[in-house]
Amino acid sequence: MPQIVHPDETVIAVKNITSAPEPVTCANCQACCCQLEVRIVTDTGVPFHYIEYDKWGSEVMKRADDGWCQALDRNTLMCSIYENRPLVCREFEMASGECITERELAGI
User: Fold this and answer.
1) What is the reported pTM?
2) Three-state DSSP class for 18?
């Protein structure tokens, strides 16, 4: 049915409003990737006290009882061994497709 507009009425154009997600930055990251298991596949200098072995004997990053990486600074949500972080962490880019997926799975 066509819309009838009276001459004394103003028509306001309807805009499509989308809720585009806020871009991921260091300020809103929330470090959800720091709950993933991280296998150490190269020597980047990860301090030994952050390393443990999984049931197959592979080196992995230690995690706290709640599942978060032991190297995560809980106050800043930043890596406390950033310069020596594992290769997997170096390759996991902030705001990449993998990052966005992990954020969605975490409900962020």
Assistant:
1) 0.72
2) coil
- Tell me the C-alpha distance between 31 and 11, whole Å: 46
Are 43 and 36 in contact by the 8 Å Cβ rule? The answer is no
Amino acid sitting at position 66: D
| Nearest C-alpha neighbor of 44 from the set 71, 99, 81, 94 | 81
Residue 1's identity, in one-letter code, is M
Q: Cα–Cα distance between 48 and 39 in angstroms, integer?
A: 14
Sign of CA dihedral 67, 65, 31, 50: negative
pLDDT digits (tens, 9 = 90+) for 52-107: 999 999 999 999 999 999 999 999 989 999 999 999 999 998 888 898 888 888 88
> Could you tell me if 80 and 73 are in contact, meaning their C-beta atoms sit under 8 angstroms apart?
yes
Residue 77, Cβ density class (10 Å: 0-12 exposed, 13-18 middle, ≥19 buried): middle
Nearest to 70 by CA among 86, 49, 84: 49
Residue 73 CA to residue 81 CA, distance in Å, equals: 9
